[in-house]
Amino acid sequence: MPPLPAGRVLAVVTAPADVLSIPCVDVDPTDPAVMALAADLIATQRVSPGCVGLAANQVGIGWRVFSLDVSAHPKARVTHGEYVLVNARVVSASRQEKSREGCMSVPDFTGDVKRASQLVVSGFLPGSGEEVVLETDAFEARALQHELDHLDGLVFLDRVAGAHAIYPRKTYL
Amino acid sequence: MTATLAITVLGLDRPGIIAEVTGQLAELGGNLQDSSMTLLRGHFAWTLLVAVDAGPADVQARLARLTDEGLVVSVLVLPEQSPGGVDGTEWLLSVHGGDRPGIVSGLTAPIAEAGGNITDLTTRLGAGLYILVAEVSLPGDVDVTALTSRIAEVSAQLGVRATLHPAETDVL
Ligand SMILES: [Zn+2]
Fold first, then answer.
1. pLDDT value at position A173?
2. How many CB atoms lie within 10 A of CB B109?
3. What value does the mean pLDDT take over residues B3-29?
4. Domain spans of chain B?
């Protein structure tokens, strides 16, 4: 990924904020404002304990941009390091697996969610606007789908696996 | 004064029970909090907490139509104290095997002895097959290996299969 300007740490919004339920809009990946947002997402993600990804609407901005870094996570297999993607979309998804996930924007609950464990995603790098296609699996696949859901206006509660698959979150990272 | 009431509704299931109960509570200005409902062999079973500016007797009276048709409704005032919990690690206990007396007591006793707390529980009886799934919080200092072997011992005695695995949550 091309170098980004220094980012600011932004406040993470929590449900039921409207911005989390509205699909984000495509933006120009070469726009300096998009590059600045990319830097802010990375900066915010880095200072948030346990945070492996952040969607733009989680910091209150309805643009189709997210950051991700699962490289330090024990469940990750394929990883692509720390990056930001703009206007990203799922190309293909297969092999559903159920797992329990939480979200910084839903701090009091966790839930069981089925997600594909084999995933191909395409998107654009901020700054250069270069199109990239990422093929990944396991935890990076899950995290990508969680962030892309945010950009579509969905949180994990929208995909929960059953009426008894929501749990109070007792431990905070 | 607004109190938190615990309401239970039990009885033969039919469509519309939840809509009727919540409709009556809404007319009392009640604010629903946590609740859990399931069917137990066709019987409707619901426990709910509601913050409402009305006493248990008023709520009972509002739900009289349900009791008239045979549903059992109880309403009690919840004490104003924060419940204690276990701060530690989260686990999932799943058990299945031939039905016989003592499965639930046998497998939950070692957890209780270890200071563990069951935070969610489902048991089901199929055609001779008994199933238990429990969410368990274990204190940080519990010897999980010892607990796992105690559970294995008990399940061998009972002739059932039991597994205790971590219920990990990944924050995304
Ligand atoms: Zn999230």
1. 41
2. 14
3. 96
4. 3-77, 88-166
Residue ranges of chain A whose pLDDT lies below 50: 172-173
* Tens digit of each residue's pLDDT (9 = 90 or more) over B93-134: 999 999 999 999 999 999 999 999 999 999 999 998 999 999
Answer whether A173 sits within 8 Å of B137, measured CB to CB: no
Candidates A101, A142, A143; nearest CB to B169: A101
Q: How many domains does chain A have?
A: 1
3-state helix, strand, coil in chain B (%, to 5): 30, 45, 25
**Bigger pLDDT: B83 vs A123:** A123
Specify the CATH class of B88-166 in words: alpha beta
Specify the CATH class of B3-77 in words: alpha beta
d(CA A60, CA B160): 51
Q: Report the separation in Å between the CA atom of A13 and the middle of ligand 1, taken as the mean of its atom positions.
A: 10
ipTM, interface predicted TM-score of the complex: 0.81
| Whole-angstrom distance, CA of residue A147 vs CA of residue B172 | 8
Give strand pairing partners of B76. Answer: B6
